[in-house]
Design brief:
Elements (H helix, E strand, L loop, with lengths): L9 H11 L6 E4 L4 E3 H18 L7 E5 L4 H12 L3 E5 L5 H10 L4 E5 L3 H5 L8 E4 L8 H6 L15 E6 L9 E5 H8 L2 H6 L6 E4 L6 H14 L2 E3 L6 H11 L3 E4 L1 H10 L10 E4 L6 H11 L4 E5 L6 E5 L11 E2 L4 E5 L5 E2 L5 E6 L12 H4 E2 L2 E10 L5 E6 L4 E3 L2 E3 L1 H9 L4 E11 L3 E10 L7 H14 L8 E4 L13 H7 L2
Parallel strand pairs: 1-10, 3-4, 3-5, 5-6, 9-10, 9-11, 11-12, 12-13, 25-26
Antiparallel strand pairs: 1-2, 7-8, 13-14, 14-15, 16-17, 16-18, 18-20, 19-20, 20-21, 22-23, 24-25
Bound molecules: 5'-O-[(S)-[(2-aminobenzoyl)oxy](hydroxy)phosphoryl]adenosine.
Length: 507
């Protein structure tokens, strides 16, 4: 059981303990243009906190919308909002004015901190007279950097409770209106004291790197809070491709990498060109990790990937496995502090070997901001994530599909992920997504959207070859009756396949 003081500011706690432990001179953050020690980061956070309270007049509990690419300044802004006793509302860099406007009004934000390069969509979002302060805009006299000059004194965090909200994170929203999820000061520490300590074994000499935006809780934890909690360093890079991430791992001697399964699959192809011996742990989350990808990455780097399922509602990863605990095909076991079970349609727990709805309970959990969907996600204190899972007799949890993505064809239940896994073992397949398409005769048919590796012809022979390949690997009724070749697959900024687009696109 994790215990935190009843009065708590999680950022003050992170940065003050860093100082008490003598980490002031260590490197905390590395960006494309600058490098900050723990002492420099604390000073920067304090100056920004003063701007928020003294210049903008924000009060404890005010909500501040944040917008910027992954860089030390964006990280410092998020930390400063929280240290100031305000509530951080980070937003994904690719969001458009209309989506930002919905978030700003749903979260009732009182101010905006935005990277100058991304201000266009904020200007267009139409929230009237919201105070807007730009950063990374050195020329401006009322930009954040100019204002920070005037506040050299340390900032004392206002008194807040461990269960005051400090973060509102919006779900990537593949469907419907985005949902805001609220998290407490103690939640941000609880995730640091769960997965990274127990599963990852994070240490002060680690160098964290990866792709998830800081506005996505996967990135906020993995690339900021986790390293700060153990005195480690995070490398923040604004625009990453599989190739530039590999180069950055090599250049910065990174030891821990966070990204999504498709990125690992693409990186495995290019890995032989880089010296990756520095890397000792690679964490995959956001989507199911196919065995084919786990195998390709192991063959390329010698590393056994750490798969972990997390959710914005739960703040971070709650089921995972590393090293010798890994069972291929399984996500893993509950992270210490969490419990998990499988529920049937009536909400009753089922035993091993039965597919049902995954439910979890632990130090973090779902608190939607004014949303009736709260009662669908939290049932009897259990968080029901919307995933179809199965448990084995040893307590391992196996992902099957998103509940609403199960394909029902001629009376058979088919998990698209299983068909994808089979296809990914075929040497011609770079990426794929499998969905159900409405069909008069069968209800739904299995439809595969396939990106081929360079040099392979998108021909009907290839399609038949893929179909036969799947029939030979898994139950033949699961084979894709329709195969469509694509240049790329539609993905969210968090790396998730947008299945609804696959279902509606092709015709
Ligand atoms: C799916 C996975 C199988 C699953 C996230 C790590 O992805 C994150 O949060 P989101 O709110 O999405 C949650 C949903 O994504 N998913 C995530 N990881 C896995 N499915 N295997 C996995 N390893 O459907 C889940 O319900 O965008 C991930 C940390 C923080 C996060 N917010």
């Amino acid at each position: 059981e994790l215990q935190y003081p009843a009065r708590l500011n999680c950022v003050a706690e992170l940065l003050d303990s860093a100082s008490l432990r003598g980490w002031d001179g260590r490197t905390a953050l590395v960006g494309a243009r600058e490098r900050l020690t723990y002492a420099q980061l604390r000073e920067r956070v304090d100056r920004i906190a003063h701007v928020l309270r003294d210049d903008l007049g924000l009060a404890t509990g005010s909500r501040v919308l944040l917008r910027g690419a992954n860089c030390p300044m964006m990280a410092a802004c998020i930390l400063a909002v929280i240290k100031a006793g305000c509530i951080a509302v980070p937003t994904m860099p690719l969001l458009r004015a209309r989506e930002l406007g919905v978030i700003a009004s749903r979260a009732r934000v009182g101010a905006v901190l935005c990277a100058a390069a991304l201000r266009g969509e904020v200007d267009a979002m139409g929230q009237g007279a919201l105070p807007l302060v730009l950063f990374d805009d050195p020329a401006s006299s009322d930009g954040l950097e100019a204002r920070m000059q005037r506040h050299p004194e340390p900032f004392a965090a206002p008194d807040t409770a461990a269960d005051d909200v400090c973060l509102i994170s919006f779900t990537s929203g593949t469907t419907g209106v985005p949902k805001g999820t609220m998290h407490f000061h103690r939640d941000l520490l609880a995730i640091c004291d769960g997965f990274p300590r127990h599963t990852l074994g994070a240490r002060g000499h680690d160098i964290f790197i990866g792709t998830p935006p800081l506005a996505f809780t996967f990135g906020l934890g993995g690339l900021l809070l986790f390293p700060l909690r153990v005195g480690a360093c995070a490398v923040l890079i604004e625009k990453l491709s599989p190739e530039t991430l590999l180069a950055a791992i090599e250049q910065h001697r990174a030891t821990v990498c966070f990204t999504a399964p498709t990125f690992y699959r693409q990186m495995a192809q290019l890995a032989p060109r880089f010296d990756l011996r520095c890397l000792s742990r690679s964490v995959s989350a956001g989507e199911a990790l196919p065995n084919a990808t786990r195998d390709a990455w192991r063959a390329a780097t010698g590393l056994e990937m750490i798969d972990g399922i997390g959710a914005t509602e739960m703040l971070h990863i709650f089921i995972s496995a590393a090293g010798s605990e890994v069972r291929p095909g399984a996500t893993g076991k509950p992270v210490p502090g969490y419990r998990a079970c499988i529920l049937d349609h009536d909400g009753k727990q089922v035993g091993p070997g039965v597919i049902g709805r995954l439910a979890v309970k632990g130090p973090t959990g779902c608190r939607y901001l004014d949303d009736p969907r709260q009662r669908d996600y939290v049932v009897d204190g259990w968080n029901v994530t919307g995933d179809a899972y199965e448990m084995d007799a040893d307590g391992y949890f196996y992902y099957r599909s998103r509940l609403d993505d199960m394909i029902i064809s001629a009376g058979y239940n088919i998990a698209g992920a299983e068909v994808e896994e089979a296809l990914l073992h075929h040497p011609a397949v770079a990426e794929c997504g499998v969905v159900g398409r409405a069909d008069d005769e069968r209800g739904q048919v299995v439809e595969a959207h396939v990106v081929l590796k360079p040099g392979v012809a998108a021909s009907s022979e290839t399609a038949v070859d893929l179909q036969e390949f799947v029939k030979a690997r898994i139950a033949p009724y699961k084979y894709p009756r329709v195969v469509r070749f694509r240049e790329q697959l539609p993905r969210t900024e968090t790396g998730k396949l947008q299945r609804f687009k696959l279902r509606s696109d092709a015709a």
